[in-house]
Design goal:
Blueprint lengths: L3 E6 L10 H9 L2 E4 L5 H5 L6 E3 L11 H13 L3 E6 L9 H10 L4 E4 L4 H8 L13 E5 L13 H6 L3 E5 L5 H10 L7 E6 L7 E6 L3 H8 L5 E5 L5 H5 L9
Parallel strand pairs: 1-4, 1-5, 2-3, 2-4, 6-7
Antiparallel strand pairs: 7-10, 8-9, 8-10
Bound molecules: S-adenosyl-L-homocysteine.
């Protein structure tokens, strides 16, 4: 087999935040398999004849993970050089780990090409440092996709509430009411600063800020929609001290 699959992170969306290696591989690939998360600017730059969209279809259905896995192996067996392009970093909530093991089990040569994750870069471009010597010695990257009420939640919100570190929630627009109330119930202060960063580094980036108590109303008023991430913790207030000096943060 001369085919190979590159599991490539696209960064959060600004084409200039693609790594040099990601850009080269995209330019050289026979096929680029992608969903919508790399954002319009990067996706529009890939010639249609080499791009294959495995995200949501016109009818709203998603290409299933097994279908994507099969397609990757199939293309490699046709000796194609394949870029599997994922938003941010391929191994941060991107199912890149599952795809890697599938490739390995099918004897397909692969390489992992890290990307700038939205989990750190998203807050960053909104003037929110993920860690801070005075405010946050840890940062947790958390999925907001699952229901905190569910009995066997994989996310221990109570434990997260007890750290004084930064919490960055991905896929967490819809379940914002559930996990903010889980954090409040676990004793986190209602005045804890919270920011929502929508489409970070895309041309239409937006940022909305509030507190643990107010952020659901803030979300509703601003009409924040995915892709967006939630930053919870004192670092979010650093933004207020810096933002008037920062251009293009989508206030
Ligand atoms: N692998 C990706 C994350 C995939 S999970 C990464 O490292 O960035 C998808 C979630 O990532 C979205 O629901 C959203 O919470 C977040 N996300 C990805 N790109 C984003 C962007 N440009 N702006 C804000 N959030 C983003």
């Amino acid at each position: 087999m001369t085919g190979k699959v590159y599991l490539v992170g696209s960064g959060p969306g600004d084409p200039e935040l693609l790594t040099v290696k990601a850009q080269r591989l995209i330019d050289e690939a026979d096929v680029v398999l992608h969903d919508k998360l790399p954002g319009p600017e990067i996706l529009d730059s890939i010639p249609d004849e080499r791009a294959e969209d495995v995200g949501k279809r016109a009818n709203g259905e998603r290409t299933s993970q097994p279908e994507i896995n099969r397609r990757l192996v199939e293309l490699a067996e046709e000796d194609k050089t394949v870029v599997r392009l994922k938003g941010g970093d391929p191994f941060v909530f991107g199912r890149g780990g599952e795809e890697m093991v599938h490739l390995a089990e099918h004897g397909v040569p692969f390489e992992v090409v890290p990307g700038v994750t939205s989990a750190i870069a998203g807050p960053g471009v909104a003037a929110i440092p993920a860690t801070h010597r005075d405010h946050a010695s840890t940062v947790s990257l958390v999925t907001g996709h699952e229901d905190p009420e569910k009995e066997e939640s994989a996310v221990d919100w109570e434990a997260l509430a007890s750290t004084d570190g930064t919490i960055v929630v991905l896929m967490g627009v819809g379940k914002l009411p559930e996990y903010t109330s889980a954090l409040r119930n676990a004793g986190m202060a209602e005045s804890t600063p919270v920011a929502l960063v929508e489409r970070a580094t895309w041309p239409n980036q937006r940022v909305a800020t509030g507190t643990l108590d107010s952020i659901v109303d803030v979300r509703d008023e601003a009409g924040i929609e995915p892709p967006a991430l939630t930053v919870i913790g004192d670092v979010a207030s650093e933004r207020e001290r810096a933002v008037e000096f920062l251009e293009g943060v989508g206030e």
